[in-house]
Amino acid sequence: MTSTWNPFSEEEFTSSIVKCNISSTPGPNKLAWRHLKHILKDKVCLKNIINIANTCLEIGYWPTHFKMLITIVIPKPNKVLYDIPKSFRPIILLNTLGKLVEKVISDRLQFHMISNNVIHQSQLGGLKFKSTSNAGITLTHFIHMGWVRNLSTSILTFDIF
């Protein structure tokens, strides 16, 4: 069986881990981002982790260890009463190494989707190099184009979680 994807590179892993916050809480493996950043400075460790990621995709298996998580519940600030569930926020802590591999896969998917025009140009949420400034500029452009044609512009916005 031949694969149709290119194996991951050192660059993909190093560029993905640079963005990770070193002060975040570690997951069930007790491995924090600051630890993983230090480990990946060693080229042998980096190559081994890349081999694990490549093998997972090649054989189509995601290890159970990467799926393990811990849910912690923290109180929301400034609540008068803490006797109802809405006063708390659950936070899910995933395995750090699994999260890194997912970040690399996500970066690659987003790159291919954008470069192959799979995502509409007006889609701004959740994409790299897109921000609320981009959304504002796009909206302003649509409004001005409407004015040129003597049209009124109205918008409906919503957020989907």
Sum up the overall morphology in one term.
flat
How many H/I helices?
Answer: 6
Order of helices and strands: HHHHEEHH
**Uncertain stretches of 5 or more adjacent residues:** none
Number of domains: 2
Beta strands, count: 2
Helix fraction by DSSP (H/I, runs of at least 4): 40-55%
Report strand order across the widest sheet.
1-2
The assigned structural class equals mainly alpha
Q: What does the largest sheet look like?
A: 2 strands, antiparallel
Mind telling me the C-alpha Rg? 21 Å
Which range does the strand content fall in? 5-15%
Distance between the termini: 38 Å
**Assembly state of the chains shown:** single chain
Query: What does the average pLDDT come to?
Result: 85
Give me the secondary-structure topology.
Layout (H helix, E strand, L loop, with lengths): L9 H9 L14 H7 L3 H17 L4 H4 L1 E7 L12 E7 L1 H20 L16 H17 L13
Antiparallel strand pairs: 1-2
Helix pairs in contact: 1-5
Care to describe what's here?
The longest helix has 20 residues, at 96-115. This protein has helices at 10-18, 33-39, 43-59, 64-67, 96-115, 132-148; strands at residues 69-75, 88-94. It folds into two domains: 10-119, no CATH class; 121-161, no CATH class. Helix 1 packs across helix 5. Strands 1-2 form a two-stranded antiparallel ribbon. It is mainly α and 161 residues long. The chain is flat.
